[in-house]
Amino acid sequence: MSLQDIILKRKSVRHYDPNYTIERKEILDSIELAAKSPNGNNIQSTRYLLIEDKELRAKVKPLAYNQEQVETSSYLILILGDYRTFHAENIYAIQDKALEKGYFTQETKTYLTNAAIGYYRNMSNQDYLKELVRDGSLAAMALVLILNEKGYQTITMSGYDKAALFEELNIPQHYEDIMLLSVGRGIQEGHSTVRHDIEDITFIDRVPSLLLGNDGNP
Fold first, then answer.
1. Is the separation of the CB atoms in 218 and 210 below 8 Å?
2. Which terminus, N or C, of the chain has the lesser number of Cβ atoms within 10 Å?
3. Are 22 and 75 in contact (CB under 8 A)?
4. Which CATH superfamily is domain 3-201 in?
5. What are the residues facing 76 on neighbouring strands?
């Protein structure tokens, strides 16, 4: 199946076969591919928490507003962003390893390292959050497509109580939540959705000004 076919046929699936098993290695192999998705300065900030234990998932379900797929899917994955990856130590470690592998010269390594450290040095917490969400979302989309290519169904979820979820899973505060992802063998196809026409979402050279209504609002 081509990438275009996967995108056109993909639907968010909420009903799964609770007895269907996916081997952990298959999930790990998929994550390994998804981790090659684009990310800022190659700091690799995205992390993946595989929630396998059935009793734990039963506890997570009410924290995710009792969404059925939290329990019935074969795997539940919490995608996280790690604030520690902005630290100079992480950037040095990644670039040192790339130099050892001969991917670039010492001169290039020094330039890339200093540029990345300088880029993140004076960012606000909101800026850091934006970076984590952007990189994590790219990785999540790649993971969804990879899993769909394997013949599985998925759904991404933002509907959950973050504070309660972090407390239940004992997640340190240097992590930021990106989304939950359920994957498994669907037993009921998701419904079709409507998308905007291409002319309504694409602009050439300039973004048009908003037209104001009679009340002065867009």
1. yes
2. C
3. yes
4. NADH Oxidase (3.40.109.10)
5. 51, 182
pLDDT tens by residue, 34-93: 999 999 999 999 999 999 999 999 999 999 999 999 999 999 999 999 999 999 999 999
Neighbour-count burial of 216, counting CB atoms closer than 10 A to its CB (0-12 exposed, 13-18 middle, 19+ buried): exposed
- Tell me the three state secondary structure of residue 49: strand
C-alpha dist (Å) from residue 68 to 46, 58, 110, 155, 207: 26, 10, 50, 11, 41
Question: How many angstroms separate the CA atoms of 185 and 20, rounded?
Answer: 7
DSSP letter (8 states) at residue 92 = H
- What pTM does this model have? 0.92
